[in-house]
Amino acid sequence: MKTDPESHQRMTQRRKEGFEKKLAAADQEKGLLIVNTGSGKGKTTAAFGMAVRVLGHGMKLGVVQFIKGALHTAERDFLGSAAHCDFVTMGDGYTWNTQDRDADMATARKGWESAARMILSGDYQMVVLDELNIVLKYEYLSIDEVLDVFSRRPAMLHVVVTGRHAPDKLIEAADLVTEMRLVKHPYREQHVKAQRGVEF
Amino acid sequence: MKTDPESHQRMTQRRKEGFEKKLAAADQEKGLLIVNTGSGKGKTTAAFGMAVRVLGHGMKLGVVQFIKGALHTAERDFLGSAAHCDFVTMGDGYTWNTQDRDADMATARKGWESAARMILSGDYQMVVLDELNIVLKYEYLSIDEVLDVFSRRPAMLHVVVTGRHAPDKLIEAADLVTEMRLVKHPYREQHVKAQRGVEF
């Protein structure tokens, strides 16, 4: 990658032109349906990183945490204290903690009612639905019902859905889908436990 | 995935046991070297999502943005206003904006000096080095010099490195590596432009 100054300048000039051409072609603005899935880390944290951008711009953010409400509180403590953020936590920890499908379905339904209200209200610029994919995978909610609400959202509202196992229908409907892929994980290889600031 | 209550309970019971077994085996705590790479979205936002957790716990965070300091300010505005966060932005936008390799190298060096100071100070629980991978790929900094500082960091300090093209040596040294893989992107398919709250 080391180059002389002239060829470096030619390379950066070409790259700049390519970038500007792409920029000129991209002239649409719209609320995006964004999905972070895959078995790697970073699905939820990437959503909260966008949430930080939204709040940094003074835009209004809604968050519904579907599954791990009982576990992850640091992001709620920090983001939830922002003036432009409404944060709803549902769920009694992971599903294996309740071992009761009916109770889980009722919790999912309650979370979805909050989510649908936020999405259709017109009050928000971004709504994050953390771990909704898990709820859909277990069929605690119907994907068709969820997609119907998404399709009726305000034109400029961004919706961010996280969790493993995003359903095919959701990926089809989405504008932006990222798979977080595990390359190396200290849990397995080094017996490192979940740590404050990283996992929760 | 629909099951009767009994088999649902057996399934969740098994899952709970597996989870608890893994938990018991994982008894180590250590500062992790975390790398978010790949050509998909979410590398920087996932780092800032962890940053939110760190700040939510009242832990101290350091951030050095190596490349896009001139572009992305929303996260700096929001996180940088937190009492426990030191935020340093370097870089004159992307490299193709300067078209001057010597200037880029000097900027990288200055950013790295701040980063090394934070890492070795003992004052932080997490240091985020945003887009350091790009700087390493262009050989604006030597990977050996960077790894040497990482290896001398306090035992409980988490370091998070983002950017495409993480060097092999960095991946080898890292504890936790995630590849963000693009599945679907609205830039290309729908000519959607970079939008407030999502890309910046």
CATH topology of chain A: Rossmann fold
Low-confidence stretches of chain A: none
Question: How much β-strand is present in the residues of chain A?
Answer: 15-25%
Class inferred from helices and paired strands of chain A: alpha/beta
Describe the structure.
The structure is a homodimer of 200-residue chains. Chain A has 200 residues and is α/β, with parallel strands linked by helices. Chain A has one domain (28-190): 3-Layer(aba) Sandwich (Rossmann fold). Chain A contains nine helices and six strands, in the order H-E-H-E-H-E-H-H-E-H-H-E-H-E-H. In chain A, strands 3-2-4-5-1-6 form a six-stranded parallel sheet, sandwiched between helices. The longest helix of chain A has 21 residues, at 5-25. At the A-B interface, helix 1, strand 1, helix 2, helix 3 and helix 4 of A face helix 1, strand 1, helix 2, helix 3 and helix 4 of B. Strand 6 (176-184) of chain A pairs antiparallel with strand 6 of chain B. Chains A, B: It is an enzyme of class 2 (transferase).
